[in-house]
Here is the input.
Amino acid sequence: MDQVQLLKDCQSKNMKPIYLFHGEESYYIDLYSKIIEDHVLSDGEKAFNQTIMYGKDTKVSQVVDEAMQFPMMSSHRLIIVKEAQDLKNIGDLNSYVENPNPQSILVLCHKNKKIDKRLKLVKNIEKQGIVFESKKLYDNELPKWVVNYTQLHQVNIENEAALMVAELLGNDLNKIANEMDKVFIGHDKSKKLTRADIQESIGLSKEYNVFELQKFIGMKDFVSCIRIVNYMGDNPKNNPLPMLLASLYSYFSKVFIASANMKSGDAAMMKALGLNSPYFLREYKSAASNYPYSKMRPIMNTLKIADLRSKGVDQRNMTESAILKEMIVQIFAA
Here is the structure.
């Protein structure tokens, strides 16, 4: 589904009677339902013709009752069911879907999981309206999404900065969008966003962050690594161990891929790593030369042990700082 086309449909009142937004990625479900909520009815029309319902507190019969009513001083009524995944016996909506009120627009927001497409309800919604599945993006798709999101806001971003955003924030699109919206505030749109801009805006220390730690691990610079982990250990709230371990696991997974493709050309290696820019390629190739295939298994095991200890398994009363330092020592000893 294209958000620009949806906006045009809302403004021209060229709407379907039923919309089902479902899937594991909540970002597009929230976005598309908000577009409909903001643009189908005017503020004056909303008072009598818009109803927001929540699945947990709503019965199917109530949804049908609202949808069967006719609009007052408006061309349409709008009924939005948020958290529709909590709507009990949702399949019972099928009787309404088979013959919907053409003057009502029913929006079902089924978040955090896919709906069973084999349901008769879903098949009938496809006939009468729109069914859109909002899928989680793969990690290698995130940098491009960040670039597109910034361009949508008339801002350009360096590929390396987009990659940093993706690696730092993960594949939660709502979180990325919220953080990027903060970055845009006061930014000169004539200038590209850089890694330094992202570090400063998202709150990373320019010297002591996971990206610098990864770089020095890849270079086998033990002294610099210990300096960084000492800082992180003194500032655990700003450097939560679970997030650090997730980033390091992702990093070494890519180093593993690089080590397995050392005989390939740069283009093939970039494709295998999911890189859109050669900026980080040299870094991964250097790390792969320092951590060949034979060292990957013990390193991954070290990360697994650190993760278990961070969750209280065989912790031996170790602090997060101690867990992190021991992990670094074990990685360099691999």
